[in-house]
Amino acid sequence: MSTDIATLRGLAHLARLEFDETREQQMLGDLNNILDFVAQLEGLDTTGVEPLVHLSQEVNVLRPDEAHNTVSHQEGLRNAPRKDSDYFRVPKVLE
């Protein structure tokens, strides 16, 4: 399977890429090499091969997710550049 320069230019347009003429020829060769490799993989007999779901048999051991405050409300506001009683003051975003 090989692609032509028009297909490469269409793909480059979709990907918002620009190539000069030298780079375009190099990319065309690289793309054709990739497609040839994929064609070789398609020809392999994979009957009896189990799908790979996980790369290893290891299982993550995670701690239980427990919500708790590590910083009090007052400590959180202590270093605020601007605050208004119990809230952070921030610049207006919407008009």
Task: Describe the structure in your own words.
It is built from 3 helices and 2 strands, in the order H-H-H-E-E. Strand 1 and strand 2 (87-88) form a beta hairpin. The longest helix is centred in the N-terminal third of the chain and has 22 residues, at 21-42. The two termini are 55 Å apart. The chain has a two-stranded antiparallel sheet. By secondary structure, the chain is mostly helical.
Strand content bin: under 5%
CA-based gyration radius: 28 Å
Helix content: 40-55%
Strand order of the largest sheet: 1-2
The chain-level mean pLDDT equals 87
Secondary-structure element sequence? HHHEE
Shape descriptor reads: flat
Biggest sheet features: 2 strands, antiparallel
Catalytic activity: L-aspartyl-tRNA(Asn) + L-glutamine + ATP + H2O = L-asparaginyl-tRNA(Asn) + L-glutamate + ADP + phosphate + 2 H(+); L-glutamyl-tRNA(Gln) + L-glutamine + ATP + H2O = L-glutaminyl-tRNA(Gln) + L-glutamate + ADP + phosphate + H(+)
Pfam family, one: GatC
Family: Belongs to the GatC family.
Enzyme class: ligase
